[in-house]
Amino acid sequence: MMYTLHLQDLIKDLKSELGERLEEVVLALMTPRYEFLSKKLHKAMSGIGTKEKTIVDILCTATNMEIREINAAYHRCNFIFKKVFHQFQCLMIAS
User: Fold this and answer.
1) 77-89 residue pLDDT tens
2) Check: CATH 3.40.47.10 for 33-95?
3) Which pLDDT belongs to residue 44?
4) What pTM does this model have?
5) How many Cα atoms are found within 13 Å in the side-chain-facing hemisphere of 58?
6) Which residues have CB under 8 Å from 28's CB, separation 6+?
């Protein structure tokens, strides 16, 4: 019980001190590797400008098998996004 209370206090203190960055790091550590890398690549390639350093860092250090895994993870995430977006559109039209 005492350990749990101290752990909760520690987490609360870390969150207040480190803010969003800690949450970002924890979420990154909890995300499966290839899904995380596919999201980083998508973010690097979308929007105005391309973040070449991120793309090079990820793709040039990956093996062929890892690139295939990243590609598969990207397509899975993209499929889920499209499905959720379609359901959201249907909901908005029905409203």
Assistant:
1) 776 666 666 666 6
2) no
3) 87
4) 0.62
5) 23
6) 36
